[in-house]
Each structure stands twice: as C-alpha cells, then as structure tokens.
C-alpha cells in the first residue's frame, strides 16, 4: 500500500517538489488568465477581414515578433536573469496600459484594433516562452516528466477565467477594460517570481546560482543554426503552426455569417471547453503518457489523431465540427504535446533556454504563421480558389509530416537521456 500523499499519487509530483510546483502553477495561471481575457475579443476581429487581409496582419505580427525577440536577446546579454524575467512582465503590462491610454485619447479604434491584434499575438507566445525558460532551467529530465504536466494545468485553469468573463459579462468588458485588467493581472506575477527565485536558490548549488548568460546578443541565433536538436524542435513547431493556420482560416470563414457578439460567445465557449478538457488530461494523463509510452509517443500522438480528424472534417466542414476539432486539437496540444516539447529544453543549456527558446517560440512560430497563412490564402481566394474540403486535405497531409518529426525528435531526446542525466544548468 502506498504511503505517498494523495496529491503525489494524483499528479506524480514528489513531496519535496510540491512548493515549487504549486507556485509555478499559480504563476502560469495568472499569465494565461491575463491573455485569455483578451483572446476571444482578439479572435473575433479577423472574421471582418478577408484571407489576404488576415495574412497581412500575421505578417505584421511576425515582423514585430522578430524585432521583439532580437531586442530581448540584446537585453538578456546585458542584465541578470533575476531582473530579466520580472522585467518582461512589467514591460508588457506597461504596453497594454499604453494602448488603453491611446483609446482614451481618441486614437482611431479601427487602427487600435489592428495594433491590439498584433501586439496581443506577440504577447500570447512571449509570456509563456519566458515562463518555461525560467522554470525549465531548474529541473532535470526525470523531474520534468513528473512536474511539468501538473504545472501546465495551471495555464488551463487560468485560461478558463478569461472566456468565462467574456461569456458572462459581454457588455461590461470593452477592449479598453480588458487592457487594464490584463496589465493588473500581469503585475500580480512579480511576487511569485521572487518566491520562486528564493525557492530555487535554496535548492541549487553555488555553481548553478552563478551561471550567467553570454554577453553575445546573437548567441541565441547562433545556437539555433548550429544545433540539430534545436533545429528539430523549431521544425516541429513550424509544422504545428501549419495546422493552426489551416483550421484558423476555416474557422474564420465559417464564423463570418455570425455577428461579432455571437462570435465572441462561441469562441469563449471553445476556450472554456478546451481548458476544462486540458485540466482533466493534464492531471490524470500527461505525466503518465511521457513516462510510460516515451517521448516519441507524447510528441506524435496528437499530430496523428488530428490528421485523421481533419480528413473526416473535410467531408463535412460545418462550423460546429470545426469548433469541436479545435477543442480536441488545442486541449491535446496544451495537455500532452506542449509539456512534452518543454521537456526537450531540459536537455539544453541555459543559454539556449533563455535566448534560443524565445526565438523558436516566438519568431519561428510567427514566421510559420506567416508562411502557412499565405499558403492557405493562395490555395483559397488568393489564387487557386480551392474549396474548404480540398484545403483541409492538404492540411491533413502536413499534419502527418508533423507527427513523424515528433517521433524523430522524441527518439533523439531518449537517446541522449539514456547516455547521461545532466544537471539542469550543465
């Protein structure tokens, strides 16, 4: 009979890891709450745009993301990690409050809507990337398989808050109010960062505490181009964005017949269902899948399942079926694929975690968005005029390739794990 606490039996988190895991859970809870308050409002905007107009907005997002990541790498080379992580969230809180002030001073709402769409899209990747850079440096490969699944459920719990407010209080939350609330919630993460810094300092050796980043502002880009493991992760994420683009475009086109308020409510329900399912999977299945079936399965399971579902959807691309597939795809990604991908970063050094990881998570992600949304636009009303069903079949083929890349990088990770168990800051 097991004498472990019930919490450990449910989550696989060891008693000595509970404080750090719970604080990290609350940290990412607040981060995701701050973002998903905005998300249904942001995602309702593109249904008033054409395919080419949406592609332009994604192009602007990629350009701004690349500039933001480059500046982040320069700053990361010049200040300590103790100041870097909280500084990122203070900066984003200030920028969202700045957009709020622009609304108050009467700047054209149409223009601000597009600025809001682009900047919130940059934020949607940056904040989580910095969070996982901060967390993953303190865990070994074996620890991460136990802890990351539970921590990641905090993102889903937080993500329920935003759509719940949108569903329950649609008339009370203008874009301006949402911006103020996002800024306030981001600032609540600052004391948690301090608690985690103290917790991890007590846990680690003096040598680990003194680790600093290279002063070379381009080292993150250099590591990406010269390390096969990092290139593999980048390719995996690039293909993930393809499926997002194919389904996002289909969703956008099918939602066009509804008014903006109805779109916000429908997308709010999608967020609520997605994150509720993610919590259930995250608590009871995520850690067990990686430990029992291995990293190749954890990384490829969702791609192969989604490929099959997209083929079935192509036979009847109705809006409710698209939204249901979005729920299944995104909850599977959040609960299984995303934690597995974060585990991959426990096998790289701190330089790669803090400098290369944001390049992959933000610039490569948004570059993939741009590439694939233009592909979708060209396949659709931009040039080839293919129907929704034909476009979805092409998306399914890409999804299968995504799955095989997951198998490959999962096997590479397990080979390295079999030969050594490096410290998290080797």
Automatic annotation (TrEMBL):
KW Membrane (keyword) present: yes
Keywords, alphabetical: Membrane, Transmembrane, Transmembrane helix
UniProt KW Transmembrane helix keyword: yes
Gene3D superfamilies the record matches: MFS general substrate transporter like domains (1.20.1250.20)
Transmembrane parts of this sequence: 21-38, 58-75, 84-103, 115-135, 147-166, 178-200, 230-249, 302-325, 386-409
Signal sequence, start to end: none
Pfam families linked: MFS_1 (PF07690)
Protein name: NTP/NDP exchange transporter
Organism: Haloferula chungangensis
């Amino acid at each position: 009979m097991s004498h472990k606490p019930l919490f450990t039996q449910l989550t696989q988190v060891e008693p000595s890891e509970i404080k750090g895991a719970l604080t990290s859970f609350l940290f990412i809870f607040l981060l995701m709450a701050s973002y998903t308050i905005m998300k249904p409002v942001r995602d309702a905007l593109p249904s008033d745009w054409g395919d080419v107009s949406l592609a332009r907005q994604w192009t602007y997002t990629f350009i701004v993301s690349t500039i933001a990541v480059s500046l982040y790498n320069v700053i990361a080379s010049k200040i300590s990690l103790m100041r870097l992580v909280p500084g990122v969230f203070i900066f984003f809180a200030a920028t969202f409050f700045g957009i709020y002030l622009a609304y108050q001073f009467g700047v054209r709402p149409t223009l601000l809507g597009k600025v809001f769409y682009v900047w919130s899209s940059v934020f949607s990747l940056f904040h989580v990337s910095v969070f996982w850079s901060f967390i993953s440096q303190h865990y070994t490969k074996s620890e991460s398989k136990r802890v990351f699944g539970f921590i990641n459920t905090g993102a889903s719990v937080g993500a329920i808050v935003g759509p719940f407010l949108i569903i329950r209080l649609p008339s009370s939350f203008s874009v301006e109010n949402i911006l103020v609330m996002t800024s306030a919630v981001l600032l609540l993460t600052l004391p948690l960062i301090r608690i985690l810094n103290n917790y991890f300092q007590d846990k680690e050796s003096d040598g680990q505490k003194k680790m600093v980043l290279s002063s070379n502002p381009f080292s993150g880009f250099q590591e990406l181009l010269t390390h096969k493991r990092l290139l593999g992760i980048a390719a995996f994420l690039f293909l993930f964005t393809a499926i997002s683009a194919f389904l996002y475009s289909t969703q956008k086109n099918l939602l066009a017949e509804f008014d903006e308020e109805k779109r916000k409510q429908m997308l709010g329900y999608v967020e609520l269902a997605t994150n509720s399912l993610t919590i259930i999977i995250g608590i009871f299945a995520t850690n067990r899948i990686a430990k029992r079936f291995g990293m190749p399965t954890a990384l490829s399971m969702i791609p192969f399942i989604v490929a099959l579902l997209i083929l079935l959807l192509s036979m009847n691309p109705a809006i409710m079926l698209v939204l249901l597939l979005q729920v299944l795809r995104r909850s599977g990604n959040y609960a299984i694929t995303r934690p597995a991908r974060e585990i991959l970063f426990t096998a790289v050094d701190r330089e790669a975690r803090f400098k290369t990881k944001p390049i992959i998570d933000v610039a490569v992600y948004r570059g993939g968005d741009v590439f694939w949304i233009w592909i979708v636009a060209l396949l659709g009303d931009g040039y080839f005029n293919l129907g929704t069903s034909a476009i979805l079949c092409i998306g399914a083929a890409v999804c299968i390739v995504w799955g095989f890349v997951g198998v490959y990088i999962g096997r590479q990770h397990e080979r390295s794990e079999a030969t050594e168990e490096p410290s998290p800051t080797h």
